[in-house]
Amino acid sequence: MATLTIEKTPDVCGGIARVGGTRIPVWLLVAYRRDGLTDRQLLEAYPDLTLDSLSAAWWYYAEHRDEVESDTRRQVAG
């Protein structure tokens, strides 16, 4: 069920995994979390997010860690 809120569309955000219905990529949320932001802070910064969508992002990262880490490296590099 969680995967239904994560989307990958070729012409949106370069096709990388993002929260469904938004342009917020999973890699960005993971990077913010790694930098110490809490779920509450992320929800305040991104009003389009819900606890369910954050949970889906964390689940997606846990299941597709290599993909999300690769997305992160590409975005940071360039």
Largest sheet report = 2 strands, antiparallel
Spell out the CATH superfamily: Winged helix-like DNA-binding domain superfamily/Winged helix DNA-binding domain
The CATH C-level name is Mainly Alpha
Cα separation of the termini: 33 Å
Taken in chain order, the helices and strands follow as EEHHHH
Number of helices: 4
Q: Compute the CA-based radius of gyration.
A: 12 Å
How many structural domains in the coordinates? 1
Q: Architecture in CATH?
A: Orthogonal Bundle
Strand content: 5-15%
Please mark out the parts with pLDDT under 50 across 5 or more consecutive residues, or reply none.
none
The dominant shape is: globular
Strands ordered across the widest β-sheet:
1-2
Which whole number gives the mean pLDDT? 92
Indicate the multimeric state. Answer: single chain
Query: What structural class do you assign from the helix and strand content?
Result: mainly alpha
CATH fold description: Arc Repressor Mutant, subunit A
Keywords:
Arc Repressor Mutant, subunit A; two-stranded antiparallel sheet; globular
Can you offer a commentary on this structure?
The structure is a single chain. This protein has 78 residues and is mainly alpha-helical. It has one domain: Winged helix-like DNA-binding domain superfamily/Winged helix DNA-binding domain (Arc Repressor Mutant, subunit A), CATH 1.10.10.10. Helix content is 54%, strand content 5%. The chain has a two-stranded antiparallel ribbon. Helix 1 (26-34) packs across helix 3, helix 1 (26-34) crosses helix 4 (65-77) and helix 3 (51-63) packs across helix 4 (65-77). The longest helix has 13 residues, at 51-63. The protein is globular, with a radius of gyration of 12 Å. The chain starts with 5 loop residues before the first strand and ends with a helix.
